[in-house]
UniProtKB/TrEMBL annotation:
The chain crosses the membrane at residues 12-33. This is DUF4446 domain-containing protein. It comes from the Bacteria. Keywords: Membrane, Transmembrane, Transmembrane helix. Pfam families: DUF4446. InterPro entries: DUF4446.
């Protein structure tokens, strides 16, 4: 009777349903195996720990993260302060040793240039002779001097500026 309405035999329907049941049983077995593996991993994870000790461990780690965040913020503030202070420190140096007078040997005279980040600072020129040592200081602003520089002082300035 059903065969007349559908146009095919009920045997095909039963075979289709049997195949579907077989596929469902296979999927059920796969899911049971996966669940078993998951339970084993969970037991290993929780072994030796209670839920309370796990919670305490998580809280402790979160507190450590908060401390690290605070320490990082403090370090950033300190680094900013250091960089601001470094701008006014002498960072560039030029030194030229020379003989100021022909009768003296050993290059005991020198010109020393010290500059900060903005190329401002000073040049110390110490000229050594038999009678004594004469020292002069010339101010440098933005890589230039208001006072005329001697050849050795100019070389020291160029060294400090990196022009060599």
């Amino acid at each position: 009777m059903i065969e007349q309405y559908l146009g095919f035999s009920s045997d095909y329907i039963l075979l289709g349903l049997a195949a579907l049941v077989l596929i469902m049983i296979i999927l059920l077995i796969v899911f049971i195996v996966q669940m078993s593996k998951l339970k084993k991993r969970y037991k290993i994870f929780m072994e030796g720990s209670t839920a309370r000790s796990l919670e305490d461990t998580l809280i402790y780690r979160l507190e450590q993260v908060d401390e690290l965040i605070e320490a990082n913020a403090s370090n950033e503030r300190n680094i900013d302060t250091i960089f601001k202070n470094m701008q006014s420190c002498f960072q560039k140096i030029g030194l030229v040793k020379y003989d100021a007078f022909n009768e003296m040997g050993g290059k005991l005279s020198f010109s020393l240039c010290l500059l900060n980040e903005n190329n401002s600072g000073f040049i110390i020129n110490a000229m050594h002779s038999r009678e004594g040592c004469y020292t002069y200081v010339k101010e440098i602003i933005d890589g230039n001097s208001i006072i005329q520089l001697a050849e050795e002082e100019e070389k020291a300035l160029q060294q400090a500026l990196g022009d060599n």
